[in-house]
Amino acid sequence: MFAEERIQDILDTLKKDGKVKVKDLSTKYSVTEDCIRKDLKALEKIVPIKRIYGGAVLHRESLAYHSTKQRLGENIDIKRKIAEKAFDMVNNMETIFLDVSTVNLILAELLAKSGKKLTIVTNMVDILNLFTNIDHNIQVVSAGGILNSTINGFVGASTIDFLSNYKFDKSFIGTGGIDVPSNCLTIFEIDDGLTKKSVMENSREIYVVAESKKFAFDCAYQFYSLDNIDAIITDEKPDSDTIKLLDEYNITIV
């Protein structure tokens, strides 16, 4: 195998597994560990990888923590595109959950103006405020509890206890990061993650609503396994290697 072919193969492994070890690659390709280190050094110049002791990992950005209020005005066109796709998933007479998500705020507005008859349960204050100012055919249920002012939503034990009484037809969940190689969704705050998880465990269908850039972002707390969701609704499809992994998890990209 030529060096260029080996480097490409190493990159494919990184995209699939998220990390590689020098010792394992040396054995796989029957070359010295020093040769593999040179390959990784060459690879580092053309793709975002991070050299670590004994190997390398595919570099993922740590998402800066912005409050919901700060994010409301960002990437509106992209979020509307995602919300419109999510809107098409909602049928009359369903009971759905709208998580704290700026995409879901746009989705809520579309649903409010649609004439659809639904029950919407939400823990997002901005969505609750929206429905007080628009005529609609929707029964809106507030999942109360302790207000987290940063995300402007209710999270934590009392919220989870309330939500445990529901069985949702569909839930639309926001996320901070989508780590496909590690098979997980990530978020900043534990209480927020635990609240999301409780909803997802009580949902017949789970839809993650997220901008495509979230495939490259990480947050501190892993709150759910990707292979337990039904679909990711996003603005652009990820690369072919990521799609292949998602196919293995039986996840649809919308």
UniProtKB/TrEMBL annotation:
<dbReference type="Pfam" id="PF08220">
    <property type="entry name" value="HTH_DeoR"/>
</dbReference>
<dbReference type="InterPro" id="IPR001034">
    <property type="entry name" value="DeoR_HTH"/>
</dbReference>
<dbReference type="InterPro" id="IPR036390">
    <property type="entry name" value="WH_DNA-bd_sf"/>
</dbReference>
<dbReference type="GO" id="GO:0003700">
    <property type="term" value="F:DNA-binding transcription factor activity"/>
</dbReference>
<dbReference type="InterPro" id="IPR037171">
    <property type="entry name" value="NagB/RpiA_transferase-like"/>
</dbReference>
<keyword id="KW-0805">Transcription regulation</keyword>
<dbReference type="Pfam" id="PF00455">
    <property type="entry name" value="DeoRC"/>
</dbReference>
<feature type="domain" description="HTH deoR-type">
    <location>
        <begin position="3"/>
        <end position="58"/>
    </location>
</feature>
<protein>
    <submittedName>
        <fullName>DeoR/GlpR transcriptional regulator</fullName>
    </submittedName>
</protein>
<keyword id="KW-0804">Transcription</keyword>
<dbReference type="InterPro" id="IPR050313">
    <property type="entry name" value="Carb_Metab_HTH_regulators"/>
</dbReference>
<dbReference type="InterPro" id="IPR036388">
    <property type="entry name" value="WH-like_DNA-bd_sf"/>
</dbReference>
<dbReference type="InterPro" id="IPR014036">
    <property type="entry name" value="DeoR-like_C"/>
</dbReference>
